[in-house]
Design brief:
It contains nine helices and no strands. It has 214 residues and is mainly α. α1 crosses α2 and α4 crosses α5.
């Protein structure tokens, strides 16, 4: 490779790094706006203003609003997954891991309410439209169910949990978590959230250590 080719390659590589840095900056600003102002009050123009760039720069890095929102959703779901994983992995027993998994979901909701609302709204909006972007996709669900199943399987292997079909129970547990969170968002004044979480923990604990087969 001659010097000219090397120089061209270096320029392309530098350009790639700069573009990635700009995309990251835009997403970070968008997430901050959602967290502080709420999803419904966050617009492309406000993101551009906060980032001190034009809307044209945003659409240079994200071809459409849909692509920008999809990347925001991915960043939010990654944050939620990492939040749960960090807390779960600090526990030693499978039962403590499972309990922490449940608690971490609800902690993220209460501590990051605006972000959770954005996750919820984006999931509905994308899935109700004819679009290739599907936040609540099979891939996302598989990622979630696989991690939860690994906790359940580890508990079965070391004798903490009884035998049951983890591929069935994992989606049921996650569905109960998501359902309770949505109910709290929709009508929090109608029920005791903390007591409901505790009851869900007791139900799951009772089932996983029970004697009957599923």
């Amino acid at each position: 490779m001659n010097k000219r080719s090397i120089s061209t390659a270096n320029k392309k590589l530098k350009g790639t790094f700069i573009e990635e840095a700009r995309r990251k900056q835009i997403l970070e600003v968008a997430l901050h706006e959602i967290e502080t102002q709420g999803y419904q009050n966050t617009t492309v123009q406000k993101i551009a203003d906060k980032a001190s760039i034009s809307k044209g720069v945003i659409y240079y890095h994200f071809n459409t609003t849909e692509e920008l929102l999809a990347n925001i959703w991915s960043a939010l779901i990654d944050e939620l997954f990492e939040y749960r994983k960090t807390r779960v992995e600090s526990r030693k027993t499978a039962r403590d891991k499972l309990r922490t998994y449940l608690q971490a979901n609800f902690e993220f909701l209460t501590q990051n309410f605006n972000k959770f609302i954005a996750l919820f709204r984006l999931g509905i909006e994308f899935n109700s439209a004819e679009t290739s972007v599907t936040p609540w996709s099979r891939q996302t669900n598989e990622r979630c169910f696989k991690y939860l199943s690994s906790i359940l399987q580890a508990g079965q292997q070391n004798g903490e949990f009884r035998k049951f079909r983890t591929e069935i129970i994992a989606p049921i547990i996650q569905g109960a978590i998501d359902g309770l969170a949505i109910q709290w968002i929709a009508s929090r004044e109608l029920f005791d959230f903390e007591s409901s979480i505790q009851m869900l923990e007791e139900i799951i604990e009772s089932y996983t250590k029970g004697d009957s087969e599923f």
